[in-house]
Structures are given as C-alpha cells and as structure tokens.
Write a structure and sequence with these properties.
Elements (H helix, E strand, L loop, with lengths): L25 E5 L3 H12 L4 E5 L2 H10 L4 E4 L8 H11 L4 E6 L4 H10 L4 E4 L4 H19 L7
Parallel strand pairs: 1-2, 1-3, 3-4, 4-5
Helix pairs in contact: 1-5, 2-3
C-alpha cells in the first residue's frame, strides 16, 4: 500500500468520462483486494465520480474521522479492523454518510440483516457487475438530492 495507513492509496486514477460533469461527491472505497478496489474506482471514474481507496479497516476509520465522505463502499472482511466494526464506529460520529457494503462473505440473509441493522444503507455481494455498482451509487446520490430538495408546492 502506498502512503501511510491513514492516507488513501494514490495509484493513478482512470480518466473520468468527459461527457460527465465532475462529481462533487466524495467517495471512499475500503477494499483489501487491491486490483478489485482500483477496478471499482476506475468504473466509478468512468461515470464521473472520484474516489479515494484504502485497504484496511483501521486506515479507513482513521480517514473517516479526519474528513467527511458522502458515500463509503465497505468490504466486511478487512485486515486491521473488520468492516462491520468500522461501520459501527462510523455511526457513532457520522450518521449521514451513506455506506454500501460490498462483500464476498457468504453469510446469506443474516449477514445482510446484521449489516443493515449496524447502519449500512445497501448491501451488494461480490463479485458484482461494475455497472450495477455504479447504478447503486448513482441511485444513492439521486435519493440524497431528492431528500435535500425543498418540497414542491402544489398549486
């Protein structure tokens, strides 16, 4: 891993799709499989998103304490600190960060329920399609924009 544990990895970013406006949302990818993490980041970059990447739970929590992220893609099986513990700690100091769990952990329905009860907003099993991942991220930001918009006035 490049940089200190509390710094995001800085492998060169894939160019964002020129047709897309630059994203103002901040994303953090927490995934210990390096190639998979950068594959997720590159898929998001092609849709106009920028994301930082870290590879262990402790580094993720340190980074989340130092700056806010709008959305976190969080693996459950991580070195340093398990993803579920990162999620529980995150919810103690930041309740507005959207967390999408990405995991190959075969826990079935119980694992999904446990993650959602701990504060996850969505859950996606790996391997997953990059298109589905991007679609879920876009849906979360659409919902956030709708929730933040003033209510429409009926005339």
């Amino acid at each position: 891993m490049q940089g200190s544990p509390a710094q995001p990895s800085n492998r060169p970013a894939a160019p964002a799709n020129a047709a897309e406006a630059p994203s103002t949302q901040s994303l953090l990818i927490v995934e210990d499989e390096v190639d998979l993490a950068f594959g997720f980041r590159d898929a998001l970059a092609h849709s106009g998103f920028r994301a930082d990447v870290v590879h262990d739970g402790r580094a993720a929590l340190d980074l989340l304490k130092s700056r806010p992220y709008d959305l976190v893609l969080l693996d459950l099986m991580l070195p340093g600190m398990k993803g579920l513990e990162v999620l529980k700690e995150l919810r103690k100091f930041r309740s507005d960060t959207c967390v999408l769990i990405l995991t190959a952990l075969a826990g079935g329905e119980e694992a999904v329920i446990q993650a959602i009860e701990a504060g996850a907003d969505d859950y996606l099993s790996k391997p997953c399609s990059p298109r589905e991942l991007v679609a879920r991220v876009e849906a979360r930001f659409r919902r956030r924009a709708l929730d933040a918009a003033p209510p429409a006035k009926l005339t």
